[in-house]
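SEVERITY: medium
COMPONENT: batch folding queue
REPORTER: lab tech (J.R.)

DESCRIPTION
The queue accepted two submissions in a row. Attaching both inputs and their returned structure tokens so the on-call engineer can compare them side by side.

ATTACHMENT 1
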Amino acid sequence: MNHPFYQKKQKEQKKIQLIVCCYAFLLFIIALIIAWQSNIYFIAFFVFYLLLTIIAPFIDVPNNKKSGKLIYYSNFFIVEKEKNGVLQIHGGTLLDYYFVLNFKWNSKQRTNYIIQQYLEGLVNLIEEYEKNNVRQIRFTGTTYILNKNTAKKLGFTITKTNSLQLMLLVLNYFNVLISNSIAKGNFSFPNVTKSISFEAKLDDLVKKKASIKALSNKLKHRG
């Protein structure tokens, strides 16, 4: 994995995290002043929540990666540590969108790269568990990026999105909004209400591995 953030030394990573926190603190102080002068105290609470959701990926994700709670299988494909035979799949976070994507790329190039990294990460995940012969494992996730047909073609079964999963997406909407806007190259509102949940057993994904790998290679060579 050639992730620009994780290729930096620990000292540099900590410095970036400190800078992010300092900027967030400064913006919160400004919000407090505005709230106090206008007597609209909701402004301070709203900005605090907004900043918290935005800076969280820059702090939590690297720390959880270091502790082993999160595992990167590609720059935009992250998996939670196995729990009770279930692996929770996640797409890239705001940290990944900011550090990995080339801002000189156009919208199509960025989108192609993100999808290619999803596919490459999925192949890496399949091959690791296939190699270790761990068959009794289930993969689950929720996404607003893939549609139902694409998910099915990859070997997943569509499941009902529960209220908790949808609530987490809504609570992190501003984080998702910024990530989506970076991917599109302009201000772009994602429709999280159209998110889908999916699951699959290893054998289901193994059957689709060749086609997933072929599509990943096709997108990689497209550039």
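ATTACHMENT 2
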Amino acid sequence: MTDAALPRPTARPLAVSNWLLTLCGLIIVMVVVGGITRLTESGLSITEWKPISGAIPPVTEAQWLREFELYKRIPEYQQINRGMSLADFKNIFFWEWVHRQLGRVIGLAALLPLVWFAAKKAIPAGYGWRTGSIFLLVCVQGAIGWWMVASGLTERTDVSHVRLAVHLLTALFIFGWALWTALDLRSAGARPRRVPTLGLWAFAALLLQLLFGAYVAGLDAGYAFNSWPLMGDELYPSAAPWLEPFLRNFVDNPITVQFIHRWWAFVVLVFAVVLARRLRGVSRRHSIFLHSAIGLQILLGIWTLLSGVSLHVAAAHQATAVLVVASFVAGVHRLARVGASASTSLGTSGTEERDYTPLVPSEAEGR
């Protein structure tokens, strides 16, 4: 059966799906800018949270001096950046301001179409709570962002890496939830899909890798060892310090965190290969997407280490993490559709449920 032969969803579910896919695109940009903000140490440059009035950046010299004076009060300036010029401050201020502006844009992009579709009664039955939850999660994410920044304004010279991990994982969860919902809406009849068992295990493995990736970023653990596959001359440096209690090493020890992030990537790769093999006979391009995303991500991770955490390479590594999430979500969703089709076929004496393939509908592919 080819995609061209499959029935397409009606206009209303398709419009809601397109809105959610646009929101996913904005989240990708947000994650990239968030990574640059972190890598340039810009995240603490704005020391106040003004969700509305903060959208207007400083314009006059007096306004810039006020922002700079506020920054001078925090430990990051006093212990690391003392003597920074106003011009240098403007550079780090820029990235944090852009990051917050994108947050506002995403908030509006989540709210305004939701209100419009709800008013037009265009949201299919059963999807009201899902689209509403996406908007609420976007709002919660804004609060988490400030909670993260606040951790570095009084005693620390950087933000809490644990709060950073919560912030990043929440962004990726919103992305995955919005993408899954968009793909559901693009199925014939806008039928929701359940995550198969293999998908649950794959998502769990990926979640753990993303968590340790966030820890690596928050602890600047990428700078600990810039060699691969060995850390220095050993698989794991024997002289590395250990924290007490033991479990703290899996959260607070940069060397342990980098080690786990290095090698858990290959556990995720195994799940990706298994998923791709399942997909190969169903959707070749989903299989290729999954292979390409995980392969590129591992190569970028190694390159990030070898480059000494180059800004451009590290930013590309974080951006590709979102593509890996997208490849897993799209691949698992495709398997879920196949499983639902098989069940429907068995239950209707050979009448197979027909779905609309969400990506590049004009492309035909054999089953």
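NOTES FROM REPORTER
The longest helix spans residues 311-347.
No errors were logged for either attachment.
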